[in-house]
């Protein structure tokens, strides 16, 4: 008995003296922005208070390549532990069993308060009562505008027009053409200059919704319905008749002064610190269907092939607690109601005046997310070449959109 006690005491002493095993997490993101990464690394550092040996490495994959390269990593034996996920891709990852359920870990996290998350904002990230992702960014699309270009053209800017109730799709077309005619390189640029490629849905859905249309619902394609056709016809005419939208093959780059307006989310305000011109943000133009804010979401998920799933879940609970959501609010509009309605949000981004951030809050409360589907990869692959055919000067818009619906109908 004495020998056993002695051995036990020695074993305990050795365990206590041994260094803790390193806890390493690989976290994929689609941002390479220095301000974003500094913020994320700060949150990772604060995680050490509860997990002293934990390290988190953020790996950037460009947004346009993100899903494809992530899928290769997951299938190729080199899986990350956790990462960002697009809203439109989430249903497919859940259906494929590629992400883990987070519900027990979040419910067990001290002071987490799941009820603080907006129920509509959580909709895409749940299957029944099971939570598979936590939205960290519920970000409405806004119009960024170059105020200097508007002033030079003698035009009221979108924020002023919105305040007067005059900022609609007709006015959007009118001012975009006037800006181009007055000497601006272009009146408008699609999101990140990729509206003909990886950002097709970001380019077409705001006007489609404003006109009262939809992409698909109840298994039916809506792209070739009259409302969507009218919306896309306007865009087509702005590109090829007015010359006011940056056309395929050209680079406008709003952020370096190559276009007077663009559409994006508030995370892109981080690029405006060095813009070199006066600027602002305004709501999306209204249309025949009234105001139709569009919300893009991004969530946090733990991949099923993670080597450290429990640690990864603990980090998601840490990253999305109320304190860190308030930190992230400077770039990523929150899904937590307590943060969204606080000065922590409206005053979080020093580049955007509080009164303009109030428009962001209103859009979050009233907006609808971009379309999603568990067959999103197949829909996207079928949709892309048909939209390529649309963006030609001599394209028949109705016929092109009929072809889009024919191509995707089997996946709806």
From TrEMBL:
Alphabetical list of SUPFAM superfamilies matching this protein: Periplasmic binding protein-like II (SSF53850)
Gene Ontology CC terms, in alphabetical order: periplasmic space
Localization (cell): Periplasm
UniProt keyword terms in alphabetical order: Signal
Record flagged with keyword Nucleotide-binding: no
Signal peptide stretch: 1-22
Family: Belongs to the bacterial solute-binding protein 1 family.
Protein name: Carbohydrate ABC transporter substrate-binding protein, CUT1 family
Organism: Vannielia litorea
